[in-house]
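notes to self, project folder thing:

trying the whole complex as one job this time. last attempt i did each chain seperately and stitching them together was a nightmare. two parts in total, labels are on each line so i dont mix them up again. if this works i'll redo the older ones the same way
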Amino acid sequence: MTSNQYQWRRDRDGLGVWEHRGQVAIAGYGHSPVDRRWDGVSMDQTLGAYSILACQRAMEDAGVTPDQIDGIVCCDSHIAGGSGGSASQWAPRPYFDPPYDSEYGLTLINGEWLAKTMNLPNVKFAPTGVPTIGEMVGLAAQAVGDGVCNTCLVIYPTGNLEGRYRRGGENADDYARGVRQWTVPWGNHGGNDFINIFPHNQYCLKYGGQHDDLAPFVINQHKNGMLTPWGFNVNHGIEPITVEDYVSSRYILNPLRIWDCDRPVNASAAYLFTTAERARDLRQPPVYVLNHSQHNFRFRTTQPDLAEVEEWTDRAAARMYEGAGLGPADVDIFNPYDGYAIMTQFFLEGFQWHGVKRGDAFAFYAGDISVKGPHPFSSSGGNLGNGRTRTAMYTDSIEQLRGTAGPRQVTVRAETALCAFTTPSSGGWLMLGKHPG
Amino acid sequence: MPKIIPVPDDLSRPFWDGVNERRLLLQHCAACAKLQYPPQPACQVCGSADGLEWKEVAGQGHIATYIVIEDGRLNRRMPDQPYNLALVTLDADPTVNFYSNLPGLPPYQVPVGAAVEVMFEEVAPGQLIHEWRVVE
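result (full assembly):
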């Protein structure tokens, strides 16, 4: 089955409260180590080995055995590295002994490879064509809620290979084909840096403020990352940056600075979804799924502008809040995506977390957003604080609701959490709760 | 350094043919009177495919904002760095926008809000692209 053959998405306005609200739970999670790159020879550090490790840790955390797994939701891969495009594979080199006798396990991971390699005998749901984690968690939640499977692993591998980020492949081409004919001739190679930097500039013009007003947010992400024991920064001697570091850092797409961009890494994470009823009998306190929602908004022209981005994030917020039966004042933990720092204010304001309205984000960043303060924004540290795993937002939300976030544990109420890997135009949101209702 | 060369396809060929004749042709939906760029198989507003026609528009616009590419990923453009990348809105419909390197303007010295007009630049023999310059 491909993911598109199963009508699981909640990607329209006005769908009402999710029919499985509080009936699905996350019962476990696991992380691999987070390395900068795979070195091409260490077989215990391949993306496959790390995905298996993450699954084992998630099952151990929940207290379930491999024979109890009946669902796997895994996307093929999201590889950084030298080649252009969303997924670049290793190279046409000789392979290794099984299970590394093909690209699978090295730069590609999928449910079939994992089920076979991990010897999961009872998997009955392992869809192909699965999108990124921002939507994978929604697919798993819906599948468990619908009874398509009962005990489902969600695995998100993010790889990184040798070479400067996406300097090869189509970015080395002298010609621009397909959708690239509308962007590349002028220097836009595509990606969320370009998509969001123009609306970000318009944001500064419309509401006042400057690009470097992002500094307190980026610095706080680094601080929170240093409080995340599995993250890249804390394990690789990445010191938290200062304001001086930030404002003197080099530009990539001026005004976008290097510190506004996440660091590609080689890692995997896994989450175990099951029914709320079953989760209550497992090892950890359940973290209930209160809603999942997705969006894929079309660009009306070449480049989205601020008005479009604000409309999209307003609609995404409305979908999520409606489906969860909650409003902005009900959300305790808020972990939006930060792969480029320039997009996060759109989410903060669209979801109106802690009353932040359009144009208020920079002033909010300048206040106390530390995890011990009254507004513990993005307590995960996100990608900027932990490397480009795209999973910190989910793991931190689970830990905050369990009360196990350690030095990141917030001091305000932590009974609901909203988390995402999403851009303004596409992706998904997940609302979690300490209680099912 | 030369810019990267667009490769027309069936959908975009009328547009690029127009550019090669130094004309700016956009899709226009007869059903809802909306201009559309880049070209699509159907109108993004009303969904009509039959109503789409090519219409020449006045190449006049304004600079909405800009960035300066200092460390981009495109091999062919690296020697040009740093260079401007502006967002130009079309006066005939400001919801339609274009990219421009604003040929002739030094990097970082972009007059946001200024009026611009279309021009055409050869990127390969027989292949032009649409560019924009500030109206003096």
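what i see at first glance: Residues 59-136 of chain B form one domain.
need to look closer tmrw
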